[in-house]
Amino acid sequence: MLSFVARRLTEIIPLLITLSVIIFVIIQLPPGDFVTLRIQQLEMAGTKLSEAEIANLRRQYYLDIPPYQQYLVWIRNIILRGDFGMSMQWQRPVSELIGERLALTMVVSILTLLFTWGVSLTVGIYSATHQYSFGDYFFSFLGFIGISVPGFLVALVIMYLVLARTGVAMAGLFSERFVQAPWNWAKVADALKHVWLPIVVIGLSGTAGLIRTMRGLLLDELQQQYVITARAKGVAERKLLWKYPVRLAVNPLISTIGWLLPSIVSGEALVSIVLNMPTTGPLLLQSLLAQDMYLAGSFLLVTSALTVIGTLLSDILLAWLDPRIRFGGVTEEA
Amino acid sequence: MTMDIASREPQGTQMGRVGEGGMDEEKEEAYFVASQWRLMWWKFRKHKLATIAGPMLIFLYLCAIFADFLSPTVPTARYTDYKDAPPQLIRIYDREGGLQRPFIYDIKRIVDPKTFRRSFVLDTSVKFPVRLLAHGEPYKFLGLFRTDLHLFGVAEGPLFLLGTDSLGRDLFTRILYGSRISLSVGLVGVFLTFTLGLLLGGLSGYLGGVVDTLVQRTIDLLVCMPTIPLWMALAAALPRDWPTLKMYIGIVVITSVVGWAGLARVVRGKVLSLREQDYCMAARLAGASHMYIILRHLLPSLASYIIVSLTLSIPRTILGETSLSFLGLGLQPPVVSWGVLMRDAQDLSAVAHHPWLLLPAAWIVVTVLMYNFLGDGLRDAADPYK
Predict the structure, then answer these.
(1) Chain B nearest C-alpha distance from A184 (Å)
(2) Is A169 in the B-facing interface, judged by CB distances under 8 Å?
(3) Which of B17-26, B62-71, B110-119 has the highest mean pLDDT?
(4) A89, A152, A221: best mutation site toward chain B, by most B Cβ within 10 Å?
(5) Hey, is A209 helix, strand or coil?
(6) Helix (H) or strand (E) holding B231
(7) Residue of A nearest to B342 (CA)
(8) What letter would DSSP give residue B168?
(9) What pTM did the predictor assign?
(10) How far apart are CA A238 and CA A236, in angstroms?
């Protein structure tokens, strides 16, 4: 088990390094850089900067050295000092900006994951055991809707409906009073009241897909010989269901956490922009548009790293559950 | 008399029982000698939802192709008297004249004295007849020749089937024109994904070794980056002032850059397993070249999976373009696409007063839904074990 984990960890390091290079290249792709944009903004506002001031700005943000050196400086700061750089837009350390939002993002993502799992498993099991019933068709239909309707659309429609009915704009994660308040139990309760909307919206498509998968897998399992034998021997239906088939059907689902997590993180980005939540999504959009290199780059790096770690955790979980994977037997189900 | 014992619907029940007249024996015979594609088609037909999805999608694409003829006006025409007008019904009945030729009422703008909000109220005293094959705003039919014939239209008056936006442009027209871009993005993007995924996945699986490792690492890399942030970053890299066509190609490339990874991975897996089969070895021994083996033997086995995967990735591409344009990173006005139309609906206060701005969403949902049904039907049809 340990050797498996060690092997996977060593695979991840080069992955993360390559990721950081790619992200850096992507951020640098737009022509010009932050300083050129800033100059444009200032000129439109009427201020003109002298050559010396421009050069100064450049030097301050490390923009006067060649790109590969910029990259090395960035990485060196991250690894040695945990310093993700200074956001040019906000004039604050990136680690602060990300830090305040990252915690919320992770909480929302994990809650969404739990929601997706809880609902899909329950509904999937119900659908499989009551196949062709009204409930089955109903949930299948809902599932299709869930896969087809993009998250931000649902968010928009729900926000509109809530606004039309109650006159309350459901944007943001906190009500007016709590936005700036320090964390206390009341704030947590308030957040919980608001968080159901993002969770449902983000989890919708994942839930739908998972329901269908779970239903299919469980149906396959329920047809196996051992189920028929157990039923013939008089085992109660409920015990029959839970003792083996569900556990076996859940197995492939665990391996798909690896796919679920990236989709939740990315879906979360879009929905949080629409709902104007204080998570990473809106900040990422702004930083990309402003070419705030350190902020955008660090964001992408952190999100990708989280995804990679999430995939790693899911692989470890799967290996723990299924000994075949540990010992390199069956690698993947086609 | 079934081939698949595990199936829940024994084939025998629909084919008739054995020995019950020559008709059924013929049917069985047909079933056994039917080609792979025929079997798939029969299976496909059983999936009710998928069978309506096909014609529905064809209808949507035809609407997109003939959008300029089908719409009553052009997407850039601004009706300044009717900004933010609600949807208007074409009526055929009214109290005075009874059943009559289609017409629309005029709408008058009123300002609420307390809130100063503008709204429209129906003016039933003025009627504008709606004509079939009417003359309206001039346009170039399919970009070929100038004409001003529209399928239906009015000489004057507010013919806005789905309302107007804040600049007074007809939403119905804009949705139809927008479908050209949004629907074609799906097809073009999938073509790119298909080529890349098949080529790289197939080569990687067949050749193995260094090529395989390289492609695998690339795929791992692409899969572990969250999609939408990746798209956002790439789209932000496109210069704002690119001409429309370049922007369009850029968006298509971006949305397929992640899609091919999934396809390549599965193709590689299947090629790997198929490569070791006896019939491949026999072909090699008989002197077949690599290319021949790939094209003649491996590809048909993959075909069903590829078809399903492509059908299911078209909606992802369409949604990708919609999301990007919605965020403002994709196509920019004056280009019309569903995503750009949704962008107008982003402002919550605007939507609260003019909810018809959300209507392009219906087109998006229907398109994606139909593609999902189609893909689901194809997947059921192609699955040999059910």
Answers:
(1) 30
(2) yes
(3) B62-71
(4) A152
(5) helix
(6) helix B227-237
(7) A153
(8) -
(9) 0.79
(10) 6
